[in-house]
Every structure is written in C-alpha cells, then in structure tokens.
Amino acid sequence: MKLATMTRGIVTFFTALAVLPGLVPDRALATIDGVNGPAFTLVATTGLISTGDGQSLLGWGYANGSGLMQYPGPTMIVNQGDTVTVTLTNELAVPVSIVFPGQTNVTATGGAAGTLTQEAPAAPCVADCAVTYTFTASQPGTYLYHSGTQQDLEVEMGLVGALIVRPNAADPLHQAYEHPSSAFEREYLFLLTEMDPNIHRLVDFGMTAQVDFTTYHPTLWFINGRNAPDTMLGAGSQAPWLAYQPYNSMPQIHPGERALMRLIGAGRDLHPFHHHGNNAWIVARDGRLLQSTPGAGADLAESNFTITMVPGGTVDALWTWTGEKLGWDIYGDPNQSATTHSCNNPTGFDTVTHEYCPDHGKALPTTMPDLLSLTFGGNWSGSPFLGQLAALPPGQGGNNPTGAFTFMWHSHTEREMTNDDIFPGGMMTMMMVEHPSVQIP
C-alpha cells in the first residue's frame, strides 16, 4: 500500500469515528482529576507514601496550596492559549524548583538562581522565598513537570506531576488536539514511576549524603502514585488511608466508546505499557499530534499493543473495544437472533449497544464446564456475557458486580508487576468494559 493511501485511510478512519452519528454513544463527561488553572500555588513538602506491600516511605512532593503533599503532584489542567502562572514555595531542607518540558519561553522570577531555573531556597527561608513561573500554554497535549534541582534525588523522592493543556476546539473536554482525529469519550491518566525504597529510608534517617545512584535498584512501580491493587481503589476521599496519593487508575468504558490514554514516563526507567483487549492508536507524542502536515489530523498514527514509555516522554493514544468478530453474541440476548436490535447505520454495529451485528444471536461456541471443574478469578462474574451474573461457589469472584469484561493493563516488564517482589502488584490496573446500562463515574 502506498504511504499516501495508507495515511489518508488512517485519518479518514479517525474522522469517521468523530463525526458519524450513532457510531459512538452520547458524549460522556469523564475528565481527569486535577486542579484547573491557569494560576496555581504549589508547596514543596513532605508526606508518607503507602505501598502495596504495606510499607510507609518518606516522600517529597508538591502540595496544592495548603493541602497535603501529593504523589504525584497535582495534575494541572489549563486551556490552550492560557497564560499560566505557577508560584512555588518550599518547606523542604533542600532547594527545589519546577521545569516544564515541552513549554517554551518559560520565565521565572523570585527565589535564587539555580542550574536550570530559579529555585525556591531551602527552608527555613527569610527572604525571596517564592518563585513564580510563567508561560503561555501554546500547544495542547499531555506534559510532564518536575523539579529541575538535583533531579536524580528530587524526582525519585516524588517532585513530579502532570500538566494537561486542553485544545482550542469546539468540544475541548472530548478532543485532545484541535483535530477531530483526537476525539474521545473518556480520558485517563497513566503517570508511570518507579522507586528504590532504600533511597527513601536513607533520606528519612538524615543520611542523604550516603545515597548512591550507581547502585539504584527500584523494587516498587507506580501508576499515578499507587501500586496495584491500590491503583483500582477509589480516588481522593474514597480511599482516605491513601491521603498523599489521591489519584487512582481505574479505566472504564462502554462498548464503542474511545478512551484517551494520557501516558507519562515520569521516572528514570523505560516501561513497556501493555493494554490487553485491543491495540491502541498512538495519535500524539510529547504534546504533538502525529500528522504529516498542519491540519492533516493524526494521519501518522501508530497502532500498537504495547506502548513503550521512555523517561520524560508522553503519549496520547486512543483505545476502544466492541467485541467485533468474536464469533458469538457478547450480550447473550439470550442467544436468539430474533432479539430486537438496530443496525441501521453503515458501521455494522448496533446504535445503542454497539454489538457487532453479524454476531447477534450467535451462541457461545463452547459448552461451559461444571463449576467443580473450574478455578475462578476475582473478576469472573460467573457468566461469559457482558453485564450478566451467574452462580459462583462461596468465596469466589466478588470484584465484578456489574458483569464487566476486564482486561489487565500493565508493564510488560513482568518484574514491574510486583511490590518489592510480591506478586501481583506494581504497575498494573484493569480496564473494565461495562454493559451500556452501567453508569460510569
């Protein structure tokens, strides 16, 4: 296939997803937890990071004003064209700062001169204690921010966060960039980090001078500041014992919806992020749409089943699931072809349930074994059909009360799916594909 023909096909596909009526459900309002700008006040301070294996480690992080330190720092959300101001003060015994990769013409005033930018002096500070960073958010996309002071130590300790710039678009809450090829129904943040607990213990015991990064050996891996299974707990006040780690990672969609994956490699290691269930289309890297010419849309989008996240890099990718060509009716219906459904559009999918119409009414192509012949995972609902529950032995299942289809999303460096060598855990969560009747927060 010629490149021009292939790229035209890609962008036509994404544009069709965005504009064809009945192809996707009514727009849901599923936005990422964070703090809306364009003015922010951050404080560098300490807190305790709870890990999936029961440890409680000293962390440094950015707090939103008078709030608690957060790991990662508050997700800052602004609009394209905003003049963004971030004022930083410091309660740590070391100087700190913030740099904004991907942003241009960042000015910094106040504080003291540092290697990369102005720094907030170590506490206690008596004069010129605050630094204000100012820039224009000229390009939409997903970005990283982090300390620009002694980065090897301060990023490891937790001084890192996400910046999201929403586009100048008709529907900026459902479009990542200015072109409809980046349209989505739901969006989720995956900020990936790792941690060497020994470093945190040395800092906690006042032995920072003994930290040696030539022996760096991470044994904990995080999505949005949590290890699995804590990634799948509720956000904020729903998990009060994770007060310093308020952001969860629990993606959910209905069939046919598009999830925007905002991925950030916020640590020092490379992480291959694997998303079961379907390939994802990578539509942007480092805050730039993958397009051949301005206005062309994501005609250079990449389809992949594992997204390699490099340190400091960001990716925006679209993931969807329909059950197309599974060869059986995902809803059961109850396996009768006469069940009412609608396929009056050119896509071949039901306009409400997004069932793949040629599979409507097809029976499950196997005979389910007797329960005594099976073992059960916590997410097995007892039924192979979406949204349905069936009998399970006592004590089995229980994690899937809505009968969702669950797909593990995780680092494909398998060791990173542990908490200090305890499996399962680490850089892992679940994508839940829910029945259309299930309300998703």
Shape call: globular
CATH class of the domain at 35-172: Mainly Beta
Helix-strand category: mainly beta
Radius of gyration: 23 Å
Q: Which superfamily, in CATH terms, is the homologous superfamily of the domain at 35-172? A: Cupredoxins -  blue copper proteins
Number of strands: 24
Distance between the termini: 42 Å
Largest pleated sheet: 7 strands, mixed
Keywords for this entry:
about 450 residues, mainly beta, Immunoglobulin-like, seven-stranded mixed sheet, six-stranded mixed sheet, 3 helices, 24 strands, disordered N terminus
What would you say this structure looks like, in words?
This protein has 441 residues and is mainly β. It has a domain at 35-172: Cupredoxins -  blue copper proteins (Immunoglobulin-like). The chain is 7% helix and 29% strand. The protein contains three helices and 24 strands. The strands form five sheets. Strands 13, 14, 16, 18, 19, 20 and 22 form a seven-stranded mixed beta sheet that branches. It has a six-stranded mixed beta sheet with strand order 4-3-2-6-10-7. Strands 15-24-23-17-21 form a five-stranded mixed beta sheet, with no helix packed on it. A hairpin with a 4-residue loop joins β3 (56-64) and β4. The longest helix has 17 residues, at 3-19. The model is unreliable at 1-29 (pLDDT under 50).
